[in-house]
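[09:14] KT: can someone run the structure on this one? pasting the chain below
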Amino acid sequence: MKIQQRASIKILIIFASIVIYSTASAQTKFVVADDFRSSQFRGFNISVVETYSVLKGKNLSKIRASGANHARAWIQVTHDAYNRYFFESPTALKTLDSTIKEAAKVGLYLILTVEFLPKQGADDWWGNAARKSNMIKFWRDSLATRYKSKTVIAAYDLMNEPRVNSKLYCTVKEYMEFTRDMIIAVRAVDPNHTIVVEVLENQMLGDLSIRADSAVFNRTLRYIKNLVYSPHGYSPLAITHQGLSATTRRAYPESSGTYMANYFKNVTYWNEPAKFQNKYNVPIWVGEFACVNWAPKNSYGQWTSTRWTQDVINYMESLGWSWASHAWREYEGWDIEMPSSWYVTNATFYYAKPSKLPPSSARTDTAPTFALFRQYFTRNKKFYLPYYL
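[09:31] RB: done, structure tokens below
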């Protein structure tokens, strides 16, 4: 009997050693750009997470339990009068450390995104060598150097929604050269992480498939390895942003007119990234897409936000794109746990905007769009290993 016990203990020790070795081995493997092909990454944005209370409210374990395999987490960075860049929130870095630790614990990959302020149409780095140099320095010194060994970070998304500033002189050439310089600096200290290049406009870095900008692309980004290209998806705004930028309540799909079923393959906003992908054989990851959940039912009795989401995911997956929905537990209008039916009995509409937004208590796992996402997440096969141990 003692001999059998000793044998059993020996087997358990060997098994534990294998598990420990496997875990250590897995944690040295970085996600690469090709892992984003064939729609292998499906997940959520968790948006700006810069305090522990916000992180706790995101409930990363529930995201992982839904079947998602990654979350896109943002930090905000701004500059002073001397063009020195720093975290907008004094607790951002500490919270980011905690987010990475929590994601690893639950088995959820992270994609780290920086939102440089002022943002989007107010981007003020155009034509400013000092600001661009310090943005590059910030990425290299404050982030890449700190997180270069973190395999739970699937990719660095260098800049959230870079946009042309109409008050400044802006060219696709300048954006591509700036992005190349940022990548070179990051890779100098961290050669392993995949890097996400966001599009300047949704026409993929300046409509490369039909314009002369492809020559600039060849000189800057085309031959840099381990890159993923990323458009965002909110078209048509008349559907996705009704009550926000559009003022008419509208259902999708329409039985006739502009926004009929399978709208996506027929418009530049959505098919230009497909042309770019085909021309250059690059992975595409749609870093954001969403439709407001207060949109009405269509003529088929389906909630517009749910049907729009279903059609856009089917389109993306037909092309092998990976994706991250916008956004988990951020603004109520994008919150897929909030059922569209809540607005029927609790709100009125003025210019397509609801008079009320649902409280957190209205969240439910049975919300139609959330249920739809869980169906797609069953296709996920690639997860950060600790979830299984």
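[09:33] KT: thanks! The two ends are 30 Å apart (CA to CA).
[09:34] RB: yep, looked fine to me
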